[in-house]
Write a structure and sequence with these properties.
This protein is of the alpha+beta class. It is built from two helices and eight strands.
Length: about 130
Amino acid sequence: MNNRGVTILICTAVFIAGLILTVDAKAHEMTPTYPKFESSFVSGVMKTKMRLFNRRNDVKYYEIGVFDSEWKPVPFVTSYKLLQMDYLETVSFDLYINTKDLSNSTYICSKSKLIKSDVISTGIASRICSKIK
């Protein structure tokens, strides 16, 4: 490769790096990072309280899921498995799991759900997970 080719390659790499660094990466937030479960008012059912914060102005819906260490779904109950949230809104929700299923549960996740008609550009979905202690 001659000097001109190397120069073009370096300029291209610098340009792409500049684009990547200037892109505003947005994601939603879910806390606590390491949720702890406590007994609920129902025998054999454990409960934890989670908070979800929408930092994405392009997303209005988030899906809640519970998974084991191999990312297989674990049965659980919340008021709504699909939460509708406005931009910069915070929603708190209780999550319930059977005691027998809790021992197999590893992650509580929230995933942004994009509406096809609202996707303007690439439409990147985000998934945030909290690890169960």
